[in-house]
User: What shape does this take?
Amino acid sequence: MQDRLPALEELETPCLLLDRATLGRNLAAMSGRMRSHGVALRPHLKTAKSAAVAKLATANEAGGITVSTLAEARHFAAHGFTDILYAVGIVPARLDQVAALRRQGIDLKIIIDSPDAGRAIASHGDEFAVLIEIDSGAHRAGLDPASPLLLEIGHILNAARNVTLLGVMTHAGHSYHCHSTQEVAAIAETERATAVDAAERLRRSGIRCPIVSVGSTPTAVHARSLAGVTEMRPGVYMFNDLDQLALGSCGPQDLALSVLTSVIGQYPERNRVLIDAGALALSKDISASEFMPEAGFGTVVGYDGLSVVDVNQEHGFIGSRRTLPFDRLGIGARLRLWPNHACITAAAYDRYHVIDSELDGGTTVVEIWERVNGW
Amino acid sequence: MQDRLPALEELETPCLLLDRATLGRNLAAMSGRMRSHGVALRPHLKTAKSAAVAKLATANEAGGITVSTLAEARHFAAHGFTDILYAVGIVPARLDQVAALRRQGIDLKIIIDSPDAGRAIASHGDEFAVLIEIDSGAHRAGLDPASPLLLEIGHILNAARNVTLLGVMTHAGHSYHCHSTQEVAAIAETERATAVDAAERLRRSGIRCPIVSVGSTPTAVHARSLAGVTEMRPGVYMFNDLDQLALGSCGPQDLALSVLTSVIGQYPERNRVLIDAGALALSKDISASEFMPEAGFGTVVGYDGLSVVDVNQEHGFIGSRRTLPFDRLGIGARLRLWPNHACITAAAYDRYHVIDSELDGGTTVVEIWERVNGW
Assistant: This one.
């Protein structure tokens, strides 16, 4: 721990600023939404990768979380989380690590979508808790719910004495490419119905299937019914970003994560200002561009129409259709940027500098929260 | 330090593999090239960010290095490097940190391209060594060499008792977008001539200008003359990548850096295999696509025509125009990927697993080298 918290103007740039007040509102809104649906919230920590955020996100929930790497699983286990879903298809080489965490009392659940993976788990000496991944239209991973493989995998797991088959899970990642909230709502309904149908197919074959797990931030926000669903796994709703804003999952007041950067050069002859947040500090993710082409690699907080129009490794180029306000953008001036995709941008940093807009307008660092990156 | 080195098959995926043999050949080739030009090699460590690599890269050189962040400067200073050029425009808020390193005996050189930055340095209490950044056509940072600002800054620095004006530097970053090696050679000549002309302008005004520093990997490889240049600062040549391959800076046998990944799903119905190297493990950099559209987010080593066609945070989608060889791509199968842009991909990892293709075909981990990320 540092002796004292740095002042905002002392921070090395680029760095991450996380507004605790906005985070708190985002967490409360999603908790309320899931409570009204009668569905458990199992927040996905792939975005935040922070035990401090996980504690806030689960404060009024059952406590279960979702992770995207075993590094996250180990980190959250070390911080007292015991109910963890590892939501990326397991490979046999990772079963020993999963078993080691389970022997420490961590109820680490894994997912599969192939008979091969099912047989590898069934022939392992340790006990596992498994969900079957279903494809609800994203065509990333998961089984077609009508596929004969669903029952084949169900029977392999059900017959294995070392396996508890918990149910099914799906992720409607294609909700990130919708052109309207109506379209998101339709995908949310498909996500729900597909998962519920798969669970029902298993149940009709005499296989228990207590968990029906779905989720993405857009579908969590816009689902009209979650009948039959038992838990939801959104992640980026905690912070939000330009991509979620463009998709209608949040409003501009719901953006909690920004990158603090310094102006390092001024080039009025080409209407450009250079900043020290480039491809590493912002990532090359331009997902918001699908619906918000002017977002570039990030937009400048408090400067309408200014965005990062290009990036090199450690250089970002700020541009605008209008003449830039060069008098306010002198060398050393500090700017905040809204990132396109919080999950990807945040991964370049090992900590959050926490601010609080309700406390003092977000003008001081009130806490520092560590992140767990890598694998 | 770990008790023993892991076997290749024990490595957690995704992870970075660095072939020491290829690295050594790349370093020797660039050293030989610069020696034949009579130009000092000041390797840019923004790609490798590793003291072990820096030691090899400077083994037969003067020892000076280039860095892109103060975190790199501190790291290399701690590992015995004393001649360091920080090649991103300085902001006044960083001068205290630069001065602190200089007081420790580190000859940390900084760059500027504005009178404002020059005056901030001149009015600081500590001593600094400064180069003026020139724009040789990349239009990122730097002065037009014909601009009156060049002499204005020169005189500000020359008059300051706490400043040693060392010379000029430029980076022809637009060499990354050339369609032929002839075009690269032409940009290399412009890079050289622009920097030399700027130095001559300063000298004609009675300002000493001992250093004329240029460099990028493409221009370092294809420059025909470096007359008047005193040092070259390429970086990615150490590892190379698909982007450099597409640009003609290297051949396929010169790729030293790959990402090791595991297959986590098979989807023959859509001719896709899913791997555990996604947007974080590979980055969203698709720079090679400008000339090599089939490169996607990376190509699969040893599998002609297979590439990563899309990425989510922790998922990569392998596809091909042909039917994938699913029998060789079962769940858990390990693949190596050539990244688009080594500098950006490597930044997701905290270490290199070093292999040696000349020792044993690269089948065991022979060393582990740490990286310094962040700011």
Notes: Chain A touches chain B through 60 residues (CB under 8 Å). The CA atoms of residues 31 and 41 of chain A lie 7 Å apart. The longest helix of chain A spans residues 181-204. Chain A has two domains: 22-238, 252-370.
